[in-house]
Design a protein that fits this description.
This protein is mainly α. The protein is built from 11 helices and 2 strands.
Amino acid sequence: MASSMAMDILHFTQQYSLYSNSFTFIIGTIGNLLNILVFTTLKLFRNNQCVLYVVTESIANIFQLTTFALIFILTAIYQTDPATSSLFWCKFRGMMVTLCTLISFSTIVFSASHQYLSTSPLFYLRQLSTIKLTKFLICTSVIISLLHNIPFGIFTEIRSSVCDVFNQNMLNYLSYFYYPVLSGLLPVLIASVFSFLAYNNVRRIVRRQVPIVRRKLDQQLTAMILIRIIVFIVLTVPYDIQRMYTFIAKVNQSNLLYFAVNNLIGAVLITLFNLNYAAPFYVFVITSARFRRQVKHVLVKKCWGRCKRWFLHSINKVHPIVDTESPACSVALE
């Protein structure tokens, strides 16, 4: 009876994971592509350090969502997990997930710290926030993440048709440092502190002689990053707790019903966790009226306008499209 129930739970978990991850992949890919489009199109955001972090995060998020989608789609196609028979896929998927997680989380931390530096009342702190430092930190993050992946490639293996890490030292590292600290508490704490400090700086920025365009941009980005950090905390902490418990309690298939229930809980939490990679664009749209106007401006005035011009040109109609947008509106948006 317990075995039959466990198999039903495992089957439901598999179906739930397939559909939830497919949905997350679709909305996340669209959202991240729109993030990249908006932040790289508007002149207002060009050469802004915080925006460069957000664009880098969006690129890492697309790779992460694609990896997650492949994991569940391939399992659905072959009716079994290819990682249990292909050592390459077993190692590659784990390394990709870890790589994209570290890059994405590090850019979240960097964007929060940048907002603190760029809005600081202290001139020497504002001087530290440069595009050169931003590019250096992003490159360093990628290199360190790649080096960090080497042990995952070495110690991930297949035993008894299970793709996992079996080395005890590596398991201890995952249980007591990677999940609770490196991909959990550490980025959450650092991002939270810098976001709070940046928010306080922005509240006092009116007292400084700052151009109104720069002031509005700082206020917009700080508010967007602050809400992003809050969502990041809410979605990350429960999953990290569950992963730590799974490793520390050594949950395995010896008790099938317990294993199935833990898998179901983990599937729900990982769905929420994966929203970290899908939600940024939608968080920005919901929380910032100015960003909504900027998205509309890019999609309607720029993208749709270019499509119309291309279409008219392709059918050899010489009817110039007059841009009715006022210069003042363009300046406000860009």
